[in-house]
Amino acid sequence: MKKILAIWLLCLSCVQAKAHSNDENAFHVGVMLFEGAQAIDFVGPIEVFGQAGFRITTVNKDGREINTAMGLKVVPDRAFSKDLQLDALLIPGGNVNGHLLKDVAIKNWILAQSEAAQYVMSVCNGAFILANTGLLDGLNATTIEKAFTSFERQYPQVNLVRDRKLTDNGKVLTTAGLSSGIDGALSLVAKVKGERVAHSVAAKIEYQWMPDGGYIRGKMADQVLPDFGNLPSGISLLSRTFHYGDERVWYQGYRFDIGVLEIVDLSAWLAQQMAAAGWKLAGDRGALTWSFEHGDAHWLLHASMKPTSDAEVVAHLTLTRQL
């Protein structure tokens, strides 16, 4: 019995006794949902807003249940309506497709809410939804790293920022991918209630909030790697097995099906790609090692390849910034 009581008391210490504020005078955040929304893009910020004592309303076009990108079922509080008054609007990312961007009802509702709201913030590729309204025209914006190129091409009137987790244009904010929404939410809390409250919320949810830094995907070492072109005929990419690192070191792994070809054919293709991108051979002749000067940094890339079957090859790339 004592053990059960101890566990119960421990659980109580980890959660609040109540949810977000129900006070009609509390700062009111609307969270826009849609089919395929990325859960972390809105669940993380909701936790922050709730801990800060904000009132939260989840809303979508028709008020019906949605499935997030990871299959979580969520029922919004209400459907779009003209009478909903918000102090801030959060637009998450996720499955942001052409159908969603062409939805006039969603676009008009965001524009209508933005007129009275103090703040509008997008998370991840929710920046596409926000940019589609024109509210980002002439402003700084960021999004998830893998969408940089398509965002810049689709919205040339927006100044894409690649090396920051958050862009703050005063009223309109955008964040980088996924967990960056937590940083954006904390920054919004700081704007509304002050930095001490924001830091207190970060401590309460045990999150290392670094307003001017932290992990910024667009600054990781792999940004200097070339954009590898199409594979030669007869070779296909089966999967990218891993990719991780920091600003000085990066690791990537791949599985290829080379069919009736040889590893040397894959190696020759990689060598051509590196040479075309301006990388120079380094080390012994025949070694899959290249060097590259980028600004004041000197980079070294080493590749290794190993057959795992008659037709399958694994390749590992190690990128390091030399001191």
UniProtKB/TrEMBL annotation:
The keyword Signal belongs to this UniProt entry's keyword annotation: yes
Signal peptide limits: 1-19
Annotated keywords: Signal
InterPro entries: Class_I_gatase-like, DJ-1/PfpI, INH-QAR
Gene3D superfamilies, sorted: 3.40.50.880
Domain DJ-1/PfpI: 29-189
UniProt KW Signal keyword: yes
Name of this protein: DJ-1/PfpI domain-containing protein
